[in-house]
Amino acid sequence: MNQQHEDERSRIRAAMDRLLAGQPTSSNGSLTVVALAAEAGVHRMALQKRHADLKEEFYARVRTETHQTPEVEKRLRKEVVRLKEALKDSRAAEAASRHRAEQMALAAAVLILRQPDSQDQPAPDNVFPLRPSGN
């Protein structure tokens, strides 16, 4: 590794220590990757791409040293709950639609099989057969 890479890593580790100690100097002090990158003076994507191991180390330290769940994990957990609820609602709507379709198919079958006869009740005035009877 080159010197610049090592310098970034040491700045990131120092920034981790400051954030976890509650003594930020260049960020808002939140325990997020954005604050860590700002505190270390590196671009956020550098932290995400080149130093992903340090990002994971930061989150692990947040969990163990502060007994908190990282903000990213909290947001993801909320999203999972929201998506599970949406899936449950979607499945319920699908089941209701299937039930309605089955009921409509049964009603159509009954109407098709039931031909108005002269012995049966006469058809209402507003119902016209699609095919004229054998006249």
UniProtKB/TrEMBL annotation:
It comes from the Bacteria. Residues 115-135 are annotated as: Disordered. This is TetR family transcriptional regulator. It comes from Streptomyces clavifer. The lineage of its organism: Bacteria, Bacillati, Actinomycetota, Actinomycetes, Kitasatosporales.
